[in-house]
Design goal:
Layout lengths: L1 E9 L2 E10 L4 E9 L8 E7 L8 H5 L3 H7 L2 E5 L39 H16 L2 E11 L1 H12 L7 E4 L9 H11 L3 H4 L4 H5 L8 E6 L5 H5 L1 H10 L5 E5 L6 H19 L2
Parallel strand pairs: 4-5, 4-6, 6-7, 7-8, 8-9
Antiparallel strand pairs: 1-2, 2-3, 3-5
């Protein structure tokens, strides 16, 4: 059962917001979906967008400017929230923005108290796609995934772990090696426990060498990003993909930072990239 919260006509299509009771997360969740005008005639391919720390299902909708390009190419865009929500859902005891609410890190937690609700990997790769296929004119056989920062990490691991589910993957300023940065160490340590070997299942740099199928990959990283060296470590992805002979288009964009100004500057190219592989 889903409930419509908002609907706006946009570039001939519909920007929609819904809520539903998630079985996987054991809470009420919200998601946004843009249906291009082509969806009025037949099912359309779908791009899943995963947002970053502190964001929700609406940030990309209002800031990226993606809908005009989605309408041009006839691609739906689905934006889930970044964590479970609700008064009963555990949060960082210190109230920090980089863990707990708004910071689910797209992993399936194994540690208490996070185990009950923080199953974000299963939500974005299984429950949400099933919901979309059931209720919307979506062609589930033509899916791709993208995201920013924490969401870029989520997109990369989803595509690396389940390549048969996606046609391609892209990311803006992704956290490529959460096992070796402060954001990731806090999140993975909290959600998965202290055994670092368990973290490798959600570390893109660790997964690249294990990949049996190589999807098309596009990554954009701003050189003026304040988090580049300590948290994002994009050069690690360059190194491991080269070593694994996994061809990835990793671009360093001069002077761009970590913000949605960066995303908006290159979102047209990313939508075109996805449309190319979703078109057939």
């Amino acid at each position: 059962m889903i409930k419509k919260l908002a609907a706006n006509k946009l570039f001939g299509g519909q920007q929609l917001q819904y809520q539903h009771q998630s079985k996987v997360l054991a809470c009420t969740m919200r998601f946004s979906v843009y249906l291009p005008p082509q969806a009025q005639l037949s099912p359309v391919p779908v791009l899943y967008w995963l947002s970053g720390l502190t964001c929700n299902e609406q940030n990309f909708v209002f800031k990226a400017g993606a809908q005009q390009y989605a309408a041009q190419y006839g691609v739906a865009i689905v934006c889930p929230d970044t964590s479970p929500r609700g008064d009963h859902v555990a949060d960082d005891p210190q109230g920090s923005w980089d863990f707990g609410l708004g910071a689910g890190f797209y992993v399936d937690a194994t540690q208490s108290p996070w185990l009950e609700n923080y199953q974000m990997y299963s939500y974005v790769t299984a429950e949400l796609p099933e919901l979309m296929a059931e209720h919307f004119p979506i062609d589930a056989s033509r899916s791709s995934i993208s995201g920013h920062s924490m969401g870029g990490h989520g997109a990369l691991i989803a595509a690396l772990k389940q390549p048969a589910q996606y046609r391609c993957v892209s990311a803006f300023a992704p956290i490529v090696s959460p096992s070796t940065c402060a954001w990731g160490e806090k999140a993975l340590g909290g959600y998965l426990g202290g055994n670092r070997a368990d973290w490798q299942a959600y570390d893109a740099c660790a997964l690249v060498g294990q990949a049996s199928h190589h999807l098309p990959v596009l990554v954009d990283q701003g050189t003026a990003d304040e988090f580049l060296v300590q948290q994002l470590q994009t050069e690690r992805l360059v190194e491991v993909s080269t070593a694994a002979n996994y061809s990835m288009n990793i671009r360093f964009q001069e002077g761009y930072d970590h913000s949605y100004f960066f995303i908006a500057s290159f979102i047209a190219e990313h939508i075109a990239f996805h449309a190319k592989f979703l078109s057939t």
